[in-house]
Amino acid sequence: MDKNDYIFTQEEIAEIQKYVAKYPDRKSAVMPALWIAQEKFGWLSLEAIKLVATTIDIPYAHVYGVASFYTMYFKKPVPKHLIEVCTCFSCHEVGGPEMLSYVKEKIGADESGFGKNGKIWARAAECLGACDTAPMCQVSNKHYRHHLTKEKVDTLIAQLENDEKLSYEKIPLNDQSILD
């Protein structure tokens, strides 16, 4: 992309301005504005980060600091779909690392986790907050998949390779009142 290609539509600017108005400090709008930019451009180049800073009217250094701190913001071009398999303690104990290895094997991942067809990448994630449904993964920063099995991973990868819209996955809640 040419540096002049980095512009927001009027609708995107209006959405960002809603976040600016929502918070007492306009710097608080940086995270949702970065999400909007990442959704639009696929990743956050320096030009996209500058666009966010200009749009919110805050220092570039602040926006760059936020974007570079969080792993959910992509600072280089990446494949369209991301499968992040939790490998934190609970998921680790019930097969998280094995599921991550399986995902990488299925997509033919290189050392960066990028699949051979260029559509999917995979990486480990720290706690995604679903310990009771481990092992689990997050897909493209949006969808969770719980109680992972090889069969569920196969289905997920097929859906992503076909660019199918993922549905919400219901999970049963455990009745905590019966636990001592």
Task: Considering the chains and any ligands shown, give keywords for the structure.
alpha+beta, single chain, 180 residues, 42% helix, globular, 7 helices, Glutaredoxin, Arc Repressor Mutant, subunit A
Sheet with the most strands?
4 strands, mixed
Task: Assign the CATH class of the largest domain.
Answer: Alpha Beta
Unreliable spans are: none
CATH architecture of the largest domain: 3-Layer(aba) Sandwich
Beta content = 5-15%
Backbone CA Rg? 19 Å
Describe this structure in words.
- The protein has 180 residues and is α+β, with helices and mostly antiparallel strands.
- It has two domains: 3-69, Arc Repressor Mutant, subunit A, CATH 1.10.10; 81-161, Glutaredoxin (3-Layer(aba) Sandwich).
- It has helices at 10-22, 30-41, 46-56, 60-69, 89-93, 96-107, 150-161; strands spanning 81-86, 120-125, 137-139, 143-145.
- Strands 2-1-3-4 form a four-stranded mixed sheet, with helices on one face.
- A hairpin with a 3-residue loop joins β3 and β4 (143-145).
- The longest helix is centred in the first third of the chain and has 13 residues, at 10-22.
- The N and C termini lie far apart (58 Å).
